[in-house]
């Protein structure tokens, strides 16, 4: 009886505070879950009805069909990345091409599974551009060392660098992977975070299909998460990977690895389906939902622009345009005395700067050395996530600290 009482209370709360379409959606989701409750295990790939919803969302986004059987729901994008690294890497002779600077998940996962990270350097001078010539050079260099390249990681929009790839560049990447028979691992978790009018997000699946390539032509794994975008539900641990272009035998192995963890958490599965199926025109919640979405993304764009301008005003600091994601990755030219002081403190120069900044102001940035970078260059990553009304105070504290730091260590 207590169970029914709680259920009735939930329903009353829904009726009082939620729009009609939200209530309808909640009951639709319950109908898709065996037993109409979230406490039991699901299919190892995720609840079929929720995968159907996600497939429909992908199709609406890209204009090309998506198969729910290609979708594996996971506890955020990170477990999906680990899963693919586990499947791809057989020994230290297997290499994965990764962008530098890179999100440390990739280097950590490759190391964990016993493979070799093969770096390709993004070109800071061209706004963190991805040059195919650099991919070719690194591929050949790895082969000369007896390393077999298995996959290429692309993060778009970029983390920590914040660039958004052009469609033409994406086509070059698809061609490269097809020619070299590489699995393309497309980290697309920031697909909603675009801040400049001349760039827009295109999924690699959409790009490959517009080029006329079907599933048999290229092996592609696309990652998405509820942690990013304008949702920010990091602790809910929801995400998925869409796996296309693999033989039935390999698909069976992917399913076996997914089955080891039984299933991802049900709340995260539900959120992933909601991220890919927002309210539609005519829904009662449509206007309020998109007003909130637009307000969040507009505010993030303003914060990015403000911080970008502030960083470029600092002595010795240059920062590329913030096109997407949630970060800026400025380059900092440090005085020789600061580099010597860092060496004496047994720290990388950018880590020394970041520690001093934290101690003096409470502002947290991540040293570029934590993401890898071109040797001899120094950077730090800062987010655009502080509340918009706090950004001016942060800029003031950062500016005052930086001036004092440069004066202290001036050659």
Give keywords.
alpha/beta, 46% helix, Aspartate Aminotransferase, domain 2, disordered N terminus, 411 residues, 3 domains, seven-stranded mixed sheet, three-stranded antiparallel sheet, Aspartate Aminotransferase, domain 1, globular
Total tally of structural domains: 3
Strand content: 5-15%
Q: What would CATH call the class of the largest domain?
A: Alpha Beta
Counted beta strands: 12
Helix content: 40-55%
Biggest sheet overview:
7 strands, mixed
Going across the biggest sheet, name each strand in turn: 1-7-6-5-4-2-3
Low-confidence stretches: 1-9
From the spread of the alpha carbons, the general shape counts as globular
EC number: 2.6.1.2
Keywords: Aminotransferase, Pyridoxal phosphate, Signal, Transferase
Signal peptide: 1-20
Family: Belongs to the class-I pyridoxal-phosphate-dependent aminotransferase family. Alanine aminotransferase subfamily.
What does this structure look like?
This protein is α/β, with parallel strands linked by helices and 411 residues long. It has three domains: 1-27, no CATH class; 33-275, Type I PLP-dependent aspartate aminotransferase-like (Major domain) (Aspartate Aminotransferase, domain 2); 300-408, Aspartate Aminotransferase, domain 1. It has helices at 2-17, 20-32, 48-62, 77-88, 104-112, 132-144, 167-180, 204-210, 248-260, 266-275, 286-312, 336-344, 349-361, 391-408, and strands at 71-74, 94-100, 116-121, 148-155, 183-187, 220-225, 239-244, 317-318, 327-328, 331-332, 366-367, 380-383. The strands form three sheets. Strands 1-7-6-5-4-2-3 form a seven-stranded mixed β-sheet, sandwiched between helices. Strand 4 (148-155), helix 7 and strand 5 form a beta-alpha-beta unit. Helix 12 (336-344) crosses helix 13 and helix 13 (349-361) crosses helix 14. Residues 1-9 have low confidence and may be disordered. Pathway: Photosynthesis; C4 acid pathway; Amino-acid degradation; L-alanine degradation via transaminase pathway; pyruvate from L-alanine: step 1/1. Residues 1-20 form the signal peptide.
